[in-house]
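User: Please check token order:
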Amino acid sequence: LPPTDIAITLTADPTFSVPANTSIVGVPGASRILLSSSNNDVGVGFAQSVGDNVAFEGITFIRSTNCTIFCIFGPRNDGFHIRNCVVDGQQDTFESPKTMHCILTAYAGTKKNITVRGSTIKRLNFGFIQGNATLDTCENILVDDCNFSGNVGDDLLFNAPLTDITNVTVSNCRFTDHASTSSPGGVAVDFAHV
């Protein structure tokens, strides 16, 4: 991606499908994707991996309007990586902000070998979340050298009431300035049935 602002209006859930063995690479700090939605009240997603070995690197994602979005649906395959990215939900800039998550593992299919490295995830609801209804396993997750700041829900929620999540490593991460106003929100790393 070029070192410029790229405005994208999301229209579907997800708007883009990323095929196997694809890396979307930007210039760190300069390749910025400004996300809005065609319907602010309906949850839509930016991208979903639909094959093995998908990566996003050096991209800044910014929610530019108060819309309900999920940045990345990922993955349901083997190998999904986020490196040196920034995801900024701007929760504190909107009156009555709507929901934004960074990574949502909601789609069916076994998910494995997920890495998030050297990234900043800030001012949104959840940094990583798996929905209660998910039935497929998730294994080998590494979150390393990341910054989490100003988020409202849990920074990382590894949640598997109906299935299994195994081999999760969170290392060298920083969790600051949590924006939750009520309990039990505001957990840096939350393991539920994992």
Summary: The two ends are 37 Å apart (CA to CA).
